[in-house]
Amino acid sequence: MIICNDSAELNEMKMKIHEHRRKLRNAVDCISGEIDRLAQFTFSEEKEARKLNPYLVKSVIKNMSRGMSKENAVIVTAMNYEQPIMRVSAVFSEQTRYMAAINLYAKRYTAEKLKKAGYKTKEIAQIIGVSENHIYKLLRAVPDFWFLK
């Protein structure tokens, strides 16, 4: 079938194409609006969930101090706060990494002060509760105070 530029069928097809384009544009606008609303809702939920982080960590530590294993303490905390177990575990593991760094710095600081006070390495190791080799490594390590730069 050959269609001329001025035929009624061509104009009808153009009108249908224009109508479909308009419908698609409206659908895309509607979907993008829903995505924006969902993103705002998710952000506000995450913001509220982040406020719980210190309480989650304290609760896990409290449960561990009562004699529970780490895994059981995480599960009990997740049930108490109605949070996913993976989230509580992730929040607590991030906290333990931070605390491990602080504890290591505290051991180094204590070893330096005891060394300056005249204690021997063997005595420092007994006080801090680590091996003599660990004391040597702590004192040789060069701290990087990147957060002060």
Concise structural overview:
The chain is an all-alpha fold and 149 residues long. The chain contains six helices and no strands.
Query: Could you give the distance between the termini?
Result: 76 Å
Please describe the biggest sheet, giving its number of strands, its sense, and whether it closes into a barrel: none
Order of helices and strands: HHHHHH
Strand content: under 5%
Oligomer: single chain
Overall geometric form: elongated
Number of helices: 6
- Level of helix content? over 70%
Q: Helix/strand-derived class?
A: mainly alpha
Instruction: Average the pLDDT over all residues and give the rounded result.
Output: 83
The strand count comes to: 0
Which stretches are poorly predicted, pLDDT < 50 over at least 5 residues?
none
Radius of gyration: 32 Å
